[in-house]
Every structure is written in structure tokens, then in C-alpha cells.
Design brief:
The complex is a heterodimer. Chain A is mainly β. Chain A is built from 2 helices and 11 strands, in the order αβββββββββββα. Chain B has a 5-stranded mixed sheet, covered by helices on one side. A two-stranded antiparallel sheet of chain B has the order 1-2. In chain B, α7 crosses α9 and α8 crosses α9. The chains are: A mainly beta, B alpha/beta.
Amino acid sequence: MRLIAAWLLVLLTAGAACAGGPPEVVSAKAVLATDAVHPGQAAKLAVLARIEPGYHINDHKPSLDYLIPTRVAFDSAPILKVEKVVYPRGKSVKFDFLDSPISVYEGQIRVGSLLKVGADARPGAYTLRGTFRYQACNDHACLPPASVPFEASIRVAPSSVPLKPANTEIFRTIHFK
Amino acid sequence: MKKGKVLVGVVLGIVVVVGLFFVNKYWITPATTKAAKASGEFPQAPQFQLTSLSGEKVDLQAYRGKVVLLDFWATWCGPCRIEIPGFVQLQNKYGSQGLVVIGVSMDDGPAPVRKFYSDFHMNYPVAMGSDKLGMLYGGIFGLPTTFLIGRDGRIYAKHEGLTDLSFFETEIKELLAVPPDRKVADFKTAGYTAAKEIATSTPAEVNSVVPGVDVSKLSPAELKEFEKLLTQQKCPCGCGFTVLKCRQVDSSCQMSLQAARDAYQKFLKSHHG
């Protein structure tokens, strides 16, 4: 079994963008809960991360003190302030190399962010950039800590223009309180 | 109908995994081992000098004549942590016969490593590693990665990922049994060895402005010209960078490495004949 797992690691490594390097096992993108945002108002953003099958990344609040937590960080943006980041609850998984289960993220996860748009933000298109930082392992090896960039296109609309909900299915599953 | 398709998919999946298992077991690994031997030898372990956590010099050259287990690991790596008590045991059991275990931590800083060293009663030198050291050993893409170096200074095995202690022990006994002045004939790896040759790099390649390519034969003017040439070539790996930029930002990329090496050979031929 371990031989097959090792082989899968080799295959995934071979499939990396730059073949031969560490495999890129996480991809991330960001979406908003509305089609635009209003000056001086709150806005919701979700970072959607996809973790390759066979790999896991650590919970934002890892079960063991030596594990590197998953974190979302935003670049500073003049018109926006990130007020809160909400991480999902991890899944408890038992690995051969540990005595007890640990909380990890597998598959697809959604990290929510509450943003505050500056009152003086002018209508127009903006980009919010950030990084999704993680450290991945499979059941027999670990990859170095890594980060993947993401960006969200944000349109500031005049307060007189009503906002339309977007990505409602995604935001229904994120508990911001 | 839908059930039938799912069943076919599952069966196909099983066939692929089983196929890979046998391809690895009976074709790729023996072919690699054979290639390594046919091409002459197992590679010489790249030399390095580090300072251990306790301040002592860790000079690989000084261990010539001994069998070295070189372990790249990190405190944040669960599979690495589970292997280490086994390495402590091996050092205790075979140290007097000539085994030296060396730990190279890929942590960002020494503080957690010092704590781990003390908590786990490690009895062998541990030093902080670097990407450049990893590059000398062919790139350390996953942890743990462990090399077994014979008394003659050659790398005989590379284990990527958590490996059964008994595999290391079998290989160590085999390597210890060969006197320092004799070559290891027909070394048999006990466990899983990566299905590729054990690749190493030279310091000139690692420290090059074009990482991975030894440009020491070029004059400063030629080097500038060569660098310019690589900035005009798009990297074939799909990263969107030029070959030079790809080498500099991701020295582990094998596609840019091959492109840079090919370009270097052509350049050398056109300038030096």
C-alpha cells in the first residue's frame, strides 16, 4: 500500500506545472456575495480552495502545536479593510504516523471574509489580492509550506444602485457569526 | 445503465492502480537500478559543511569510511517525526560499527528543532539545511527524504516519504559489511527507491546565476550574452516566465533546467567550438 502511495506521490510530482518540482496541491480563487459593493458598507468574500485528492492541509487551528496552520492573508488595499476571516471546521482524520486523529482540511474548503468598504471609495473596478498559505501532507510524506495567490475583482457601485446577490450557494455554507 | 458505467469506472481504476504497482515493481525500479550501475556507478554524495545545533562542524568529507544516513526532515512533518526514534535506535545499535546518522532540518529556524532534539533525545548531529543543500541532492520535494551513503562516499539509496525502519536497517547492514576500500557490488535496495536515478548537482550548478547550469566556462561577456539568450526563450513548463526567470524562481523545475542546459550546450558549441 505504501509503495502505491509513494508511486502516487511520484506521479503527482510529475504532473506539477514545472515537472520535477514539488507538486502544487492547492488552488484558490475568491468570489463575492454580491455583484458589487457600496462605499461605507460591509461586503462578504469567500476564498475557495481546492486540495488535490490524497493530500490534506492543516486546520487553521491545528490539533498539534508543531503543525503549520492554514491561513488566508490579504494584501493591503486602499479602499477595503478586512474585518474578519472565518475558517471552516476541519475534519478529524487518523493517520498512520500519528497516535490520535488530527483536524485537517481535505477536498474543497471555503474561507469567509468580512470586508468594510471605505466610505470614500469611488465607484469603479478594483482588485483585492491575497494568498492562501498552507502546508500539505499525504499519508506518508509532507511538502514544504507553500502559498497560492488569489485575487478578487471588486466593483464599487454608487449607493443608489441596488446590489444583486451572487454565489448564494457558497455563502449559505459560511457562518460569519 | 448508470450503475454499469460506474462499475466499469471502478474496475478501470483498480486496473490502473494495480498496473502501476507492477510497472513499478517489475519494470521501472529494476531498470533504474540497472541504469545507475550501467552508467558506471551510484553517484558520489555532494560534499557539504554545516554547523550542528550544538555548534560542531558537520563535514561530510570527515565521515568518509563510514556509512552515513542523511535525513532531510522538519519538525512540522508528522512522518519525519515518527522516523526519528528509529534513527536514534540505529545510531545506538550500529554507531560502533561505523554508522553515522546526520539530520538536516528544513525548518525555517532552529528554535523548534532544538526543542525537538532535546525532547526526542536525539543522539546524532542535526544541522539546519537550505534549499541550496537540497538542490545539491537533486532537490528535496517532500519530507522526509533520506539518503544512504556508503563507506566509499556514494549514494546507494534514496527514500522519499515515511519508510519502514527495517528497510533502512537491511541496507545499513549491507553497506557496513563492505570495507572502505572496496566498492559495494550489487547493492540491493531493501525498500522503495524513487523510480528515477539518484540525481545530484555540483556546487557550481547550484550557485550559478542560471541555477542548475555550470556556466563557469563562460567569460563575463559571454555569460551576459547567455543570460540574454535565456530571457528571450519562453519556459516550456507553462509558467509564463522566460527560461532564465523560471530557473531563478523555481530551481526545482526540470523543464526549464533541460531547456537551459540544451541552450548552454548550443551556446558553448557556437562560442568555443
